[in-house]
Design a protein that fits this description.
single chain, 6-stranded mixed beta sheet
Length: about 375
C-alpha cells in the first residue's frame, strides 16, 4: 500500500518536514502607513482569515470535507466535542478557494496516532493538477504540526489532503486529527481619516465619519469595520459598524452620521479588528460660538484664530508695533475694536458682542489686524 511503502523508506529519504509547535497565534509585522489627510503612523497588525470551513469538525459532521472512510469521532478530541478519525490508509480532503501560496500564512493541524511510531502523509494539491506529498510521524498524544514551509511558493493551492496510517501493527492502525487550519493574510489597511479632522465642533453639528481604505489583495475582501466614540469625562460611548466589500485598490467608507448630545472632550478611532486600530483622536464639542475658518483669506500667520471651550474666540497676537484689532460684519461695518499695545505675544478674547456689549447675530465677520485679514463665522 502507498503509505506502507512510504513508511518503510521514509528514513532513507528526506528528514521530517513537520515539527510540533506550541501555538498557532498570528505573527505581528510592523509597517507605517501615511495618510493624505490625517496621518496614521502605527504598527500594522497582520490580519489573517481562516480558509477552511468546519476546521474542527464541531458541526458534528465532516462536510465540506470529503473522504473515502474518515468519520467524526467523540473519543478523546483535542478540544471541543469532536475530532475526525480513521483506521487504515484512507484520505480526507477539503478544497479551498484557489490561493497563491505566497498569501498563505499558516498551514497547521493537530494529530495523534496511538500506535506511534507510525506515519502520516499529507498532500498539497495545486491548480496545475500537481500533488506534493510529505510524510511526518505523529506521537501517541495530541501535538500540533506546522507544515507551512512545505508549500510551493510558485503555485496556487486548491486543496489540502491528510491520510491515515496502515502499518500492520498489533493495534488498530488509527489516526486522529483536529483543528486543521489554513490561514491567509488580509492585506487591508486604513490609510486616511477623511472625517472628522477638526478639533472642535458645535452642539448640533452633524459629524459624518469617513475613512479611506486600501486593499492590496488581488480580489475583493469583506470585512467588518467599527467606528467608536467615547466621552472622556463620562460613560457615554457610541459605536457604529459596517460590513464592507473592499475591492482591490482604494475605497472611501462612510459611517452613519453622528450628532453630539453632550459638550466636552471626546475621542474616536476606527477598528478593523481588536488588534488593528487607528490611534485615538481627540476633539471638543462646545456650545455658543464656534469657528469655521476660511484659510484662503488668511494673508499672514502673525495672528492665529482658534476655537476655545466656552463662548469666546481667542486671538493669539504677535505684535511688533502697536496696532488695532478690528472686527467687521459682512456689510463692512465696524462692530468691535481692541487696541493692541503689548510687544509680546498675548491673547485677546472676543465674546461675539459689539462695542456696546450687545450680542451680535450669527453670520460671517471679518477680522482685521494690521495687514492680516481673516474671515470667521459666528454661530449660536
Amino acid at each position: 500500500m502507498k503509505l506502507l511503502f512510504r513508511f518503510l523508506f521514509s528514513f532513507l529519504i528526506a528528514e521530517l518536514t513537520a515539527e510540533p509547535i506550541i501555538t498557532g497565534n498570528s505573527k505581528i509585522e510592523s509597517a507605517n502607513n501615511d495618510s493624505d489627510l490625517v496621518n496614521i503612523s502605527k504598527g500594522k497588525f497582520l490580519l489573517e482569515r481562516e480558509m477552511l470551513q468546519n476546521p474542527s469538525f464541531e458541526t458534528g459532521s465532516l462536510y465540506p470535507w470529503t473522504t473515502n472512510n474518515w468519520i467524526v469521532d467523540t473519543i478523546y478530541p483535542h478540544q471541543g466535542r469532536y475530532c475526525a478519525s480513521v483506521v487504515g490508509n484512507y484520505w480526507i480532503r477539503q478544497n479551498v478557494r484557489p490561493m497563491p501560496s505566497g498569501y498563505i500564512t499558516h498551514v497547521t493541524f493537530w494529530a495523534r496516532q496511538p500506535e506511534a511510531p507510525a506515519a502520516q502523509a499529507y498532500d498539497f494539491i495545486y491548480n496545475d493538477s500537481t500533488i506534493e506529498e510529505f510524510v511526518h510521524f505523529p506521537t501517541a498524544e495530541w501535538a500540533q504540526y506546522d507544515v507551512t514551509a512545505n508549500l510551493n511558493q510558485q503555485k496556487i493551492l486548491v486543496a489540502f489532503r491528510l491520510w491515515g496510517y496502515s502499518g500492520g501493527g498489533p493495534n488498530p492502525d488509527s489516526t486522529y486529527i483536529d483543528d486543521v487550519s489554513i490561514t491567509r493574510r488580509v492585506d487591508v489597511v486604513i490609510t486616511s481619516i477623511l472625517s472628522p479632522t477638526e478639533d472642535t465642533f458645535h452642539m448640533g453639528d452633524t459629524i459624518r465619519p469617513r475613512i479611506r481604505m486600501s486593499n492590496s489583495m488581488p480580489f475583493t475582501e469583506s470585512l467588518w469595520v467599527w467606528f467608536k466614540i467615547d466621552h472622556t469625562c463620562s460613560s457615554y460611548t457610541y459605536c457604529d459598524s459596517s460590513f464592507i466589500n473592499i475591492p482591490p485598490g482604494l475605497i472611501d467608507v462612510e459611517f452613519a452620521p453622528w450628532i453630539p448630545r453632550y459638550t466636552g472632550q471626546y475621542r474616536f478611532r476606527f477598528e478593523l479588528s481588536p488588534n488593528d486600530t487607528t490611534p485615538w483622536y481627540y476633539f471638543w464639542i462646545v456650545e455658543g460660538i464656534a469657528i469655521k475658518e476660511n484659510n484662503d483669506l488668511l494673508l499672514s500667520n502673525k495672528i492665529i484664530v482658534r476655537p476655545t471651550i466656552g463662548k469666546s474666540f481667542e486671538f493669539v497676537c504677535e505684535p511688533k508695533i502697536p496696532k488695532v484689532l478690528k472686527i467687521y460684519n459682512s456689510a463692512g461695518e465696524l462692530v468691535w475694536t481692541k487696541k493692541i499695545s503689548a510687544k509680546e505675544p498675548f491673547t485677546v478674547k472676543w465674546f461675539g458682542k459689539d462695542q456696546l456689549n450687545r450680542g451680535l447675530s450669527p453670520g460671517v465677520y471679518i477680522l482685521s489686524y494690521g495687514d492680516v485679514t481673516k474671515r470667521i463665522m459666528l454661530a449660536k
